[in-house]
Design a protein that fits this description.
5-stranded antiparallel β-sheet; 413 residues; 22% strand; 8 helices; alpha+beta
């Protein structure tokens, strides 16, 4: 006999900072075989599950006749906020889950629901590569946990962004937005599609259509890492712009800059270019990371900011981006330094050099960054001129003193 979910309890939520800041909800799932398992789910995952469940049961979801609806409505992402939700009736996740499990068995025990609440590998081993910044956990008060999941030790604080250009949805999972709309970011997915809520609407929108209110720069935007992180392409892509790179399925590349818009800068040999992050997965990993589970089937890469027309930003100055030439130069310089390229000795008597010949910077001279973020060589220190050249260019007074010094030295010998 197959086991089924008999109860789901909301324990709280956890604020995580990898791969970007997001929230996961802690759910204790109790099964019919009396086992209990702790799982973590993000709101976008719950939202996608809810949409799929409604598609599977159109009558019970009220798509045929509204009066026949028995599947509960999904509450907004703020059902664990300290403020009471503006929505009436089913306003908490606990009530939503309880209503689901009280539905007829053909829904409450269906494979889709059972699979969603099963333990995943990332539930048992949550990713935490950043040991300097621990995850923050907020729990439900046990005394107030009888259907009142809004009483939690801390509220969810969502970032507010502004829409810079009209966006028309192309799938049921996205939402329509107008220039100037203000929305809250529920999750910033690495693929460049962010899950947002705007008033009563919730869904996905490309990050390239959004800007922070306080400034043009993203506080979470990572700096380039020319050491590179190995990834493997899981889908081929043909470059559409000059600064992009074409790759086939199964190619191993190095990611050198992870950008929040979902278009990462990758290195393949000496070449670099932008590539959709949703077509990549870390090398040596047989299954995709938990953050990639929210990729929608058939979802396309988000549009680049350079392809958006009629962009209306409230910030007078946008962040300057590195060019691919700068990425390539910085990448080559880093790889040369990593290889431990040796500096040619200055006093090599076997080679005939001009007294004023300059030596190139071969990794032994400090480097500085220009205003555009590109690494530039520091000014070179000129070599010491030969005695003959000094005599040619010095004053008569200095030349006479040198002659007297030589005469005295010869006499002493």
């Amino acid at each position: 006999m197959e086991v089924f979910v008999r109860h789901v309890e909301l324990l709280g939520f956890e604020k995580r900072f990898f791969p970007s800041q997001h929230y996961v909800y802690m759910l204790m799932v109790k099964w019919s075989d009396l086992s209990e398992k702790l799982i973590y789910r993000t709101y976008p995952e719950i939202h996608t599950f809810h949409k799929s469940l409604k598609e599977m049961f159109p009558i019970e979801s009220g798509q045929i006749e509204r009066r026949d609806r028995i599947i509960p409505s999904l509450p907004a992402p703020r059902w664990v906020d300290s403020q009471k939700s503006r929505e009436t009736r089913k306003t908490t996740l606990s009530e939503y889950c309880s209503s689901l499990l009280n539905l007829p068995p053909h829904i409450s025990r269906c494979k889709h629901l059972t699979d969603f609440f099963k333990v995943r590998s990332e539930d048992e081993n949550p990713p935490a590569p950043n040991t300097l910044r621990r995850n923050e956990t907020f729990v439900v008060s046990r005394e107030l946990n009888r259907g009142v999941a809004s009483d939690i030790s801390g509220p969810i604080i969502l970032d507010t962004y502004r829409v810079i250009s009209d966006f028309k949805k192309t799938s049921k999972h996205e939402i329509d937005l107008k220039t100037g709309d203000l929305l809250e970011i529920v999750e910033k997915n690495q693929n460049g599609w962010w899950f947002c809520q705007c008033e009563s609407k919730r869904g996905w929108i490309p990050a390239s259509f959004l800007e922070p209110l306080d400034g043009p720069e993203e506080t979470e935007e990572a700096e380039p890492d020319y050491e590179g992180e190995l990834h493997v392409t899981v889908q081929n892509y043909i470059a559409e712009q000059e600064d992009e790179i074409s790759l086939e399925v199964g190619e191993t590349i190095e990611v050198i800059h992870k950008l929040l818009d979902g278009w990462w800068v990758v290195r393949k040999g000496d070449d670099t270019g932008h590539f959709p992050s949703m077509f990549l997965q870390p090398a040596g990993r047989t299954e995709t990371h938990g953050a990639q589970r929210t990729h929608l089937r058939g979802h396309r890469p988000p549009p680049r900011r350079s392809t958006i027309r009629n962009v209306k930003s409230i910030h007078s100055r946008a962040r300057q981006r590195l060019t691919q030439d700068a990425y390539r130069r910085n990448s080559r310089r880093h790889l040369q330094q990593r290889a431990g390229r040796q500096v040619e000795p200055v006093g090599n008597s076997s080679s005939s050099k001009s007294p004023l010949r300059e030596h190139s910077n071969q990794g032994n001279v400090p480097e500085i960054s220009g205003s555009d973020g590109e690494l530039k060589e520091a000014p070179l220190v000129p070599p010491r001129p030969s005695p003959e050249l000094i005599l040619q260019r010095c004053t008569d007074n200095t030349r006479n003193k040198l002659s007297i010094h030589k005469t005295r030295s010869s006499s002493a010998c």
